[in-house]
Write a structure and sequence with these properties.
Radius of gyration: 20 Å
Distance between the termini: 54 Å
Number of helices: 5
Strand content: 15-25%
Structural class: alpha/beta
Number of strands: 9
C-alpha cells in the first residue's frame, strides 16, 4: 500500500489535509485506512467517522494519538469508554470548534494511559474533578474556552510538566496548584485572575510562567517573588498592555 506512506489524515469536512492522490482510495475503503496505521500510529477524524468505525479503530495496533473534531452530532459518550480500552493511547486532542457541547465528556478522564490531553474551543465553564484520575498526564492544554477555575484535583497530577489554559475566563486558581512538583511551564495568557495562590511559590521546577494580557492581576505574591530570586532560570511574563 504505497499510497499510505504519507502521514494520514481523514477529516470529512477538511479534505485538504489529506494527500490528494490517496483521498479517493481512503473514501472507498475504510479498512485500508485503518490498516495503514500499522505504519502510522496517528488518526485524525470527525466524531461522525469515529462513531461509525469505533470497532475497527479499537483493533488498530499501536495507536498512540487521536485527534477528534466534534460537530453538532449528538455526543455518544460511551465512545470514550471504548477508547479507554486502547492501552497504547497516550495523546488525545479534542476540538469543539464546530460544536455547541457545554460539557467535557466525563468518560475522557477514564483514559488513564494519557500523557497529553489537548482540548480546544469547549463551551464548558469548569473541568470535572475527575481530571485528577489522569495520573500519567504530563501535558494539559485547555485553550479558547470558558472555564473560570481549575478543579482542586489538579494537584493530583504529579507527573504534569506543562499546563496551558490560555484564552479562557479563569478568575481563580486552587491552592493545590502548588502540589504540581514537576511542573516547568504554566501559561495563563489572557485570563481574568485578580491574584495568585501563595502555594505557587512551591513550584521549584518552574521555568516559565506566562501571565501576559491579564490587567486584572495587580500584584504577585511574595512567595513567587522569592521563588524567582532562588531560581534564576524562572521567567515570569507579565504584560498588561
Amino acid at each position: 500500500m504505497d499510497y499510505f506512506e504519507e502521514t494520514l489524515y481523514y477529516q470529512r469536512d477538511n479534505f485538504s489535509l489529506f494527500p490528494k492522490n490517496i483521498l479517493a482510495e481512503v473514501e472507498k475503503n475504510v479498512d485500508q485506512y485503518l490498516a495503514a496505521s500499522k505504519q502510522e500510529n496517528e488518526l485524525v477524524f470527525t466524531d461522525i467517522y469515529l462513531y461509525e468505525n469505533i470497532d475497527k479503530i479499537l483493533k488498530t495496533p499501536n495507536l498512540t494519538y487521536i485527534l477528534i473534531n466534534f460537530s453538532n452530532t449528538p455526543l455518544q459518550e460511551d465512545i470514550f469508554v471504548k477508547l479507554a480500552q486502547i492501552k497504547t493511547l497516550c495523546k488525545l486532542e479534542l476540538s469543539f470548534i464546530s460544536s455547541d457541547l457545554t460539557e467535557i465528556p466525563e468518560a475522557i478522564f477514564d483514559i488513564t494511559s494519557l500523557r497529553i490531553l489537548h482540548i480546544s474551543h469547549s463551551q464548558t465553564t469548569e473541568l470535572s474533578s475527575s481530571l485528577g484520575k489522569l495520573k500519567n498526564l504530563e501535558s494539559l492544554t485547555f485553550i479558547q474556552g470558558n472555564i473560570t477555575t481549575l478543579p482542586k484535583s489538579i494537584g493530583k497530577l504529579e507527573k504534569l510538566e506543562t499546563l496551558e489554559v490560555e484564552l479562557n475566563g479563569i478568575t481563580h486558581l486552587p491552592s493545590t496548584i502548588g502540589d504540581l512538583k514537576n511542573i516547568t511551564h504554566i501559561n495563563l495568557f489572557l485570563n481574568h485572575l485578580t491574584k495568585l495562590p501563595q502555594s505557587i511559590g512551591k513550584l521549584h521546577k518552574l521555568k516559565e510562567l506566562n501571565l501576559s494580557l491579564m490587567p486584572s492581576l495587580k500584584e504577585i505574591p511574595d512567595e513567587l517573588v522569592n521563588l524567582q530570586r532562588e531560581n534564576s532560570f524562572l521567567k515570569i511574563i507579565i504584560d498588561t498592555v
